[in-house]
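Entry for the shared binder. Reason: the reviewer on the internal report wants the predicted structure included alongside the sequence.
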Amino acid sequence: MNNELPQHIAIIMDGNRRWAKNKRLPVIMGHQAGVKAFRRTVEAARELGIKILTVYAFSCENWNRPNHEVSILLHLFEYYTQKERENLKKNGIKFQTIGEIDKLPLKLQKELKKTEEYTKENKNLILNLAINYSGREEILRAIRLLFKDFNGKNLDSLNNEVFANYLYTAKIPDPDLLIRTSGEIRISNFLLWQLAYSELWFSSKLWPEFNKEELILAIQEYQKRDRRFGSGGN
């Protein structure tokens, strides 16, 4: 039995489109409801004492969605970073991004960086927004950076800790708990290296339905787990 809170929670926010479809609403209303659920979850994580929250907001594969839907999502990210900047600062939340940010629209890049800079001294919660993110691409990027640094040097010193320093999440502990909503049971190219020993919890709720009570259920289930980190069972 593990009675400690997870220090780092990762979330795959899934189900906005299905939520809208089930209610016969436009897709945009599903994503808007998803933003509200995101805001609720960030606030709940802060209140519960979680130190790091990493959320999967937009994958590299999401560019394949219809153009109008992609535009809606990018606009919502821009709107959130503008509207919530003061609240993040006031509540001690340090906002960060992981992913290929330089491939996003320039205006969105500027808003993301502005919010990162504005909240960089905050200590209550680190909020990582994974946007234009791919787990496989992150690993390839790390390898490219590593090869530049080593440049023909002996690789005998390369180990897990050294490699992890080349990931977006360098100096951040790996997630203790992964939550995925909407009933899907897969990790969808998210934090492939970092999730090696994370506990996984899958919710049947669609993301717009996710709330503090559901987050607490996930944490309570996590606390029942016997984490062995690959050391084997009884």
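Summary line for the report: The chain has eight helices and six strands.
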